[in-house]
Please model this.
Amino acid sequence: MPTDRNPTPTALPRAADLRADCARCFGLCCYVPAFAASADFAVDKPAGTPCPNLGDDFRCGIHDRLRDRGFPGCTVFDCFGAGQQLAQVTFGGRDWRAHPELAEPVRAAFPVLRALHELLWYVTAAVALRPGDPLDGELRQVGERLTAHTRLGPDELRAVKVDALRGEVNPVLTRTSARVRSRGGRPGRDHRGADLVGADLRRADLRAANLRGAYLIGADLRGVDLHLADLTGADLRGTDLRGADLTGSIFLTRAQLDAARGDAGTQVPVSLGRPAHWSPVPVTIARRPADGRRAGSRRGPASR
Model:
């Protein structure tokens, strides 16, 4: 019998399985996580309590007005399809309201399953990049293992060591990124984990750059070409992407786009779509004059 440590491998999920389907969920993102009153949330909500905006039908009562009502943090949360998987497969369609005995198991399992689905999203995105042998095989192997973990029952899910799985997956993703970013020659600049908060990057060459985990909060990337730039985990809250080209970026998520600012001139992958709150008209980009400084010079070297 398969165990949590060595589940039976299974095929990778479809892209649709890694996208949130709220109609098949039981409002888990509005029930399980905690949040505090801040610029992102208008009220305090303890973990394991329903948000006051969650209706009896498990729908958000202000879904089309979240930003206006002080809940922008809700608009950038992505369960990567874990919500419907937990609701319909793990718990067989039984919800936490009709079955109060499931409340605690649901609260324990949801964060684990969401983390697994997020890792799977990155792995399937990496497979689609076709990095070539032997990485193609390695990615499929780790993806199959992750998929098998998502099929575990509630008790087995609680025992999954997510950090250990990340430790297995991240090196493969990092090697995939390096190979893909080298397709045009050498990889771009390494800004991994860099503090670029508020930086003016309009003249920076970020093509094929490594921006994994970079802090780009409020940074100005208007008109920047981000072809083959690795945006894994980059913090794009308030980042100005007006007129930027992200069509060829790798490991870019919809949640990152939702957190950023853009306009009709921002080019994004068709699979992710354009956030509704972005400006419907393109804005003329005023490029700063050349001053001899490199990207991130506001706070010293951009890479670590």
Residues 25 and 73 are 19 Å apart (CA to CA). Residues 103-128 form the longest helix (26 residues). The mean pLDDT is 91.
